[in-house]
Amino acid sequence: MRPVKESSTPSPDSADVRTAVISQEVAAIAESGNEPAVIEFRPPRIDDGKRIWQIARDSQVLDVNSGYAYVLWCRDFADTSVVATDDADRPVGFVTGYRRPDAPATLFVWQVAVDADQRGRGVAGRMLDALLDRLAPLGVTRLETTVSPDNEASIAMFTALARRRGTHITRTELFAPDDFPDSHLAEDLYTIGE
């Protein structure tokens, strides 16, 4: 792997993109008349697996895994994952992740998704912050994730996460399209933290 880009401070371009995204989100909330959602964060439970699968499917951007995979994830990786729930304890967003066996100080984030009616309210970023805060006492100091080069929203979200946490983010080429058995874009590895 070779580093492609390293940034300890946001570039003017990324700051402009983030400002534009935030401005659009604020305008959408103001236009809809909705106040920011009151959301709780907790580890997922087995009975959340079905709902997490639905959120992934409805996102229309994630690679959707089998329903079994999400239920199993809720059982085996609940400690390193999080769901955002509404006032009825219904999941409206999730982050799935795991600690890398060869690097236990590293949380690998597999998927992040938020219900369409909750988007633009900072739920995804708040889930990531809540999960990292929960794992910090266990020695987790770094986050890794993969993002395809065309996914500007995820790149902006993880760049904003690094900025909020006062650390840097790096991008490294990881998987090329021909590494996959099916049609798939490249996946770059983003690393946040030390």
Could you explain how this protein is built, in words?
The chain is of the alpha+beta class and 194 residues long. It has a single domain, classed as Gcn5-related N-acetyltransferase (GNAT) (Aminopeptidase), CATH 3.40.630.30. Helices cover 35% and strands 28% of the residues. It is built from five helices and eight strands; from the N terminus they run βαβααβββαβαββ. Strand 3 and strand 4 form a beta hairpin. Helix 1 crosses helix 5. The chain is globular and about 40 Å long.
Q: How would the blueprint of this fold be written?
A:
Layout lengths: L2 E5 L4 H21 L7 E3 L6 H11 L7 H10 L5 E4 L5 E10 L2 E12 L8 H13 L6 E6 L4 H13 L4 E7 L11 E7 L1
Parallel strand pairs: 5-6
Antiparallel strand pairs: 1-7, 2-3, 3-4, 4-5, 6-8, 7-8
Helix pairs in contact: 1-5, 2-3, 4-5
Could you give a short description of this structure?
The protein has about 190 residues and is α+β, with helices and mostly antiparallel strands. It has helices at about 10-30, 50-60, 65-75, 125-135, 150-165; strands at about 5, 40, 80-85, 90-100, 105-115, 140-145, 170-175, 185-194.
CATH fold call: Aminopeptidase
Which term fits the overall shape? globular
Please write the CATH class name: Alpha Beta
Q: Quote the beta fraction.
A: 25-35%
Report how far apart the termini are: 17 Å
Helix content: 25-40%
Uncertain stretches of 5 or more adjacent residues: 1-32
Helix/strand order: EHEHHEEEHEHEE
Largest sheet: 8 strands, mixed
Global structural class = alpha+beta
Number of helices: 5
Q: Write out the strand line-up for the largest beta sheet, numbering strands in chain order.
A: 1-7-8-6-5-4-3-2
Considering the protein shown, what is the CATH homologous superfamily? Answer: Gcn5-related N-acetyltransferase (GNAT)
Count of domains: 1
Overall pLDDT: 85
Rg estimate, integer Å: 16 Å
Please give the CATH architecture.
3-Layer(aba) Sandwich
Q: Total strand count, please?
A: 8
